[in-house]
Write a structure and sequence with these properties.
Blueprint: H1 3-10, H2 14-42, H3 48-59, H4 62-72, H5 76-99, H6 103-122, H7 134-155, H8 161-164, H9 176-179, H10 184-211, H11 214-221, E1 274-279, E2 286-289, H12 290-294, E3 299-306, E4 317-326, H13 327-333, E5 347-352, E6 357-361, H14 362-365, E7 372-377, E8 380-381, E9 391-393, E10 407-413, E11 436-441, E12 451-460, E13 466-473, E14 478-480, E15 482-483, E16 493-501, E17 504-514, E18 537-542
Parallel strand pairs: 1-10
Antiparallel strand pairs: 1-2, 3-4, 4-7, 5-6, 5-10, 7-8, 7-9, 11-12, 12-16, 13-14, 13-17, 15-16, 17-18
Helix pairs in contact: 2-5, 2-7, 2-10, 3-5, 3-6, 5-6, 6-7, 7-10
Length: about 550
């Protein structure tokens, strides 16, 4: 064999490397498609992308999580999944190119990523066991096999006359594909067949996964919430200001913020849902069905919720009308007493169907406030994104220490004995909502005309109530704003101030005072560990 032929066999040319990379991408696509199909038979959360994504969320430092929420909002999960797919695509291209020279190494690399997905699936808090590994394992084997076969078509099929020592008569018409050293026809046939099959398998898998929640959807569609025995009072017309640009007093379900770690929204069938209450100081442990809750006294309350990831002036706060049962009543029925009455448990740990754990102070839940197991939101059953069939709502506490969605278990324990999900990641154990306010209009960098400009927004201090809101223009004196009527102390209040704007650049700043006399601080802090603080301001240019 001549030296140049040896060099060509040892070092594949760029075209074959490119085809190898394409083989890797196709193998990766096949692996994900097969995994999607198998996950439909196990559960959607066992899909490798979902499992690895969930593990990534768990391992991500709190400041990075906060950054993602701040920059991507409710699209943070989509961005994460796209990022995972992009990384997998790059690695698949590299493994494919590597397989042109080292078939077994390339295939082994695919199997390794399958092992990573399997480990992530079984390591999730909601893992059902070894069956969660099946999608990753099946997908990895399918992808590794395909890459091994395609790499073989690129390296082993074609043998040139020089390498086989055969004599080809002049003009005999040797096969061009063979002379190039790879099986072009075989490669194209296998690649095209695999691509078509993967598209079909992936489509079937997605369709089956989508249909898995059919019973849950039907249970929600069939649900008619009975009228509450203790209805909320109609919202006064004076509680909602007619100022263009201000947040509406009631936040619609579609507009209500969503911040959680669930890459796949759980779809729970209300007819099979159960809630278990047990733990320290629970003298009569009990399990409740959805029907049990519907037969209890239902109350309806307007309550504003706030996410601890909400920056000063941020959007993660909303007000809704909730229907549910009193959580304190259920706890008392089970023999639970708050610490102030000698109860041994000071922490309630709520567990979601997706494994999330949220810890709340027992004293706060049983101090007379309207802490709910909510079944409805704004006149309809809870949307799936907001916790159907049942979630917790506790006025005055940030969501990460109170608002467990898709709840299925309540355990009474102590703060010393157990750290819930967010506490393990550096957040506070206790987190009452801070007194905050926000300018909704004018928007930052707006260019209003000179004259009267309406400055307006919302302020909140749930379970304490807002007493006063003031606005300052540049370094001038604080001016008291007009407050809309208070609905309850558990809801936000709208405010407005007519400002005689003069030409030039101006900074508008707002602060609120709650019913305890606490004035919103001007000291800026991050959201970690117990919520952001500071005063919201916007810069506008008056023309």
């Amino acid at each position: 064999m001549r030296d140049e032929e040896k060099d060509r066999r040892v070092r594949p040319g760029r075209p074959r490397l490119a085809l190898g990379a394409l083989s890797g991408a196709l193998a990766g696509f096949t692996a994900l498609a097969v995994a999607e199909l198998v996950a439909a038979g196990v559960r959607p959360q066992s899909s490798p992308v979902i499992a690895v994504g969930g593990a990534s969320i768990d391992a991500t430092p709190a400041p990075v999580k906060d950054w993602a929420i701040r920059h991507f909002g409710t699209d943070d999960k989509l961005v994460l999944q796209l990022g995972i797919l992009a990384v997998l695509a790059v690695l698949a291209l590299v493994l494919g190119a590597l397989a042109v020279r080292f078939r077994q190494v390339g295939a082994a690399g695919v199997l390794l990523f399958g092992a990573v997905g399997a480990a992530a699936a079984t390591g999730r808090p909601d893992s059902t066991g070894l069956t969660d590994t099946l999608p990753s394992i099946a997908g990895a084997f399918a992808g590794a096999l395909l890459l091994y076969v395609l790499a073989g078509r690129l390296t082993a099929a074609g043998r040139s006359p020089a390498s086989s020592h055969e004599v080809v008569p002049e003009g005999a018409g040797a096969d061009p594909a063979a002379c190039e050293g790879w099986d072009r026809r075989g490669f194209v046939l296998v690649a095209a067949s695999a691509a078509a099959a993967s598209v079909a398998v992936g489509a079937v898998g997605r369709s089956l996964n989508a249909s898995r929640g059919r019973d849950a959807v039907a249970s929600r569609d069939d649900l008619v919430l009975p009228p509450p025995e203790s209805p909320a009072q109609p919202v006064s017309r004076r509680a909602a200001l007619r100022v263009p640009g201000i947040s509406p007093f009631v936040t619609s379900n579609n507009s209500f913020y969503r911040v959680d770690t669930a890459l796949v929204v759980p779809k729970v069938d209300a007819t099979t849902w159960r809630l278990r209450i047990h733990g320290k100081g629970v003298r009569r442990p009990a399990t409740y069905s959805f029907g049990d809750l519907l037969r209890r006294e239902l109350i309806e309350r307007d309550i504003t919720l706030t996410c601890v990831s909400n920056e000063v002036g941020g959007p993660y706060v909303g007000n809704a009308r909730w229907i549910g049962v009193r959580l304190a009543g259920l706890l008392a029925e089970c023999g639970v007493r708050p610490p102030s009455r000698g109860g041994p448990a000071d922490q309630l740990v709520a567990r979601s169907v997706d494994g999330m754990t949220i810890g709340s102070p027992v004293e706060d839940i049983m101090d007379g406030r309207d802490a709910l197991l909510a079944l409805g939101m704004n006149g309809e059953p809870l949307p799936f994104e907001h916790g159907f069939p049942v979630r917790m709502v506790v006025p005055g506490l940030y969501g990460f220490v109170s608002a467990c969605k898709w709840i299925e278990d309540i355990e009474l324990t102590t703060f010393d004995a157990y750290d819930p999900y967010w506490v393990k990641r550096g957040w506070a154990r206790r987190a009452p909502v801070k007194t905050e306010s926000r300018i909704d209009t004018p928007k930052p960098f707006a260019r209003p005309g000179a004259g009267t400009v309406m400055v307006a927004g919302v302020a909140w201090a749930q379970h304490r109530g807002i007493d006063k809101v003031e606005v300052r223009i540049d370094d001038g004196p604080w001016q008291e704003a007009h407050l809309a009527a208070e609905d309850t102390r558990d809801t936000w209040r709208q405010w407005s101030l007519p400002w005689r704007a003069t030409r030039g650049s101006h900074t508008l700043t707002v602060r609120a005072t709650d019913r305890t006399g606490t004035v919103q601080t001007d000291r800026r802090t991050r959201t970690i560990p117990d919520g952001a603080s500071g005063r919201h301001s916007v810069v506008v240019t008056v023309e």
